[in-house]
Write a structure and sequence with these properties.
- The chain is mainly alpha-helical.
- 55% of the residues lie in helices and 11% in strands.
- The chain has 9 helices and 8 strands.
- It has a two-stranded antiparallel sheet with strand order 1-4.
- A hairpin with a 6-residue loop joins strand 2 and strand 3.
- Helix 1 runs parallel beside helix 3, helix 2 crosses helix 4 and helix 3 runs antiparallel to helix 7.
- The longest helix has 33 residues.
- The chain is elongated and about 85 Å long.
- It starts with a helix and ends in an 8-residue tail after the last strand.
- The relative contact order is 0.08.
- About 3% of the residues have low confidence.
């Protein structure tokens, strides 16, 4: 019955799946055309709007296919026909895979090949992107759709969930900096991985509950708890995220050979440290050179995260902060920057 249910849904919803594929292709084309320098300027607005339309389209199409055979009404014909609920659930997941994710995967593959990437690299990136879209867009939409009986209810539930996600934000705002320590850094993939894992576990609980038991109240409670957990993961501390990355590192002890030291008398440079105080402002700039040794020749040192303490002559810490790259402004401290944020090591494996 799985294939028959899929064909029935495909006959009804193929125009919407085609529109979604075309919008996604337009989004990829715009991103490809803009390149690294975001030119021409006239296309920038589409680069902002089209990703939102793609996500919205994936949500709408997922909700539509789930609602084709709703779980709440007692008058639907499939309830009195010999259709195993397991087959119904698998048919919906098959539609999400073939009608939504496969076109996205093929478009990503085409774009990567046209851009000159290797087939293996293109396949890996396209597969990973599709996996995250499935976990972070389609599965949450399918769970919400299974707990509602009409699209308006999904919208209302989404608003409720959005307010629920503010709880971790407000807690972080009251007790610390609201910036994520991991997001947009080299360790940012840990957030996506934990999000995906959390959503998969939730889907493995909620979808069977709805399709086999219709335990909507329990499902809503689980969904709310999961969304709060997803919001809390965004504020995962740097040390925890970095520890997770070390677990997956091919050579976890590789950094032990790298040393960092103060370099006040660097040949060909001004004497350091230097302190600048801007007239009329409380901001003070302190330039402190550092020497990194033990790097591989021609490797690139990228500043992802820095922990800095400023200590006065009496040994008292006057400023302490952990900052991500060079764009964070820690609460209660001066702006601490590591410059340049990305530097290539010389033939001796040294960066200053």
């Amino acid at each position: 019955m799985i294939w028959h249910i899929f064909k029935k849904d495909a006959r009804l919803l193929w125009p919407y799946a085609l529109i979604l594929a075309l919008v996604y292709a337009a989004r990829v084309w715009v991103s490809f055309t803009l390149g690294l320098f975001d030119e021409p300027e006239s296309l920038r607005v589409f680069d902002d709007v089209l990703p939102i339309l793609v996500i919205a389209g994936m949500v709408v199409l997922t909700v539509a296919v789930v609602h084709q055979d709703g779980l709440f009404s007692s008058t639907l014909d499939w309830l009195v026909r010999p259709i195993p609920r397991r087959h119904l659930l698998l048919a919906k997941l098959l539609f999400i895979l073939l009608a939504i994710l496969v076109p996205v995967f093929l478009i990503d593959m085409t774009a990567g090949i046209v851009d000159g990437l290797s087939l293996a690299s293109t396949f890996t990136n396209a597969l990973g992107d599709g996996f995250y879209k499935f976990c972070l867009v389609s599965l949450p939409a399918a769970m919400l759709a299974s707990m509602t009986d009409r699209p308006l209810s999904v919208f209302a539930a989404s608003i409720f969930v959005s307010f629920g996600l503010l709880v971790p934000y407000l807690a972080e705002r009251n007790f610390g900096d609201v910036n994520s320590a991991l997001a947009f850094s080299g360790v940012g993939w840990v957030i996506n991985m934990l999000w995906a894992l959390t959503v998969i576990i939730a889907a493995c609980i909620i979808l069977p509950l709805q399709y086999f038991k219709r335990a909507t109240r329990v499902s809503y409670l689980i969904f709310i708890v999961v969304m709060e957990l997803v919001g809390a993961i965004w504020y995962l501390p740097w040390d925890a995220g970095f520890a997770i990355q070390r677990l997956f590192a091919a050579q976890p002890g590789l950094a032990s050979a790298i040393t960092v030291e103060f370099a006040p008398d660097t040949p060909g440079r001004e004497r350091f440290p230097q302190i600048y105080a801007e007239p009329g402002r409380t901001r003070v700039t302190i330039l402190v050179p550092l020497r990194f040794t033990g790097l591989a020749a021609d490797s690139v040192l990228y500043t992802d995260h820095s922990s800095v303490r400023l200590v006065d002559g009496s040994g008292q810490v006057v400023a302490s902060s952990s900052v991500r790259q060079s764009t964070d402004r820690p609460a209660g401290a001066s702006l601490i920057q590591v410059y340049p944020p990305q530097t290539r090591a010389d033939a001796n494996g040294v960066v200053i």
